[in-house]
Amino acid sequence: MAAFRIGMLHSTEMPPSPFETIESAEEFMHLLHGEIEKARVEMEALLAGDQSEDSSRQEEALRLVVHKLTQLKGHSESSQRILRDLRTLRNLLLR
Asked: CA 55 → CA 51, 61, 87, 90, distances in Å?
């Protein structure tokens, strides 16, 4: 059974993970959030530039992509807030 310490689970059987710390998870979420925003802006630009009448299905699909990216951005922001809260709570527990 893995021994529990505040901040980490320790086990000799588990290889190191890129998400061993809250800070590394925060860094990942920050990078992911930036890429989501870039993709959303790019899709909105495609949508704004697509003025042909023949592509109503494509326009509808692009609108759905923008909507889903907006949802994902919101989830990313929520995850970042949760990670900040966890970091704060960890710091309070370690005082």
From this structure: 8, 10, 47, 52
Residues in the chain: 95
Contact 30, 84 (CB under 8 A): no
Query: How many angstroms separate the Cα of 44 from the Cα of each of 6, 8, 58?
Result: 44, 41, 13
- Give the confidence band of 60 by pLDDT, cuts at 50, 70, 90: very high
- Tell me the pLDDT tens digit for each residue of 11-51: 556 677 778 899 999 999 999 999 999 999 999 999 998 76
Q: Is-contact 84 26, C-beta < 8 A?
A: yes
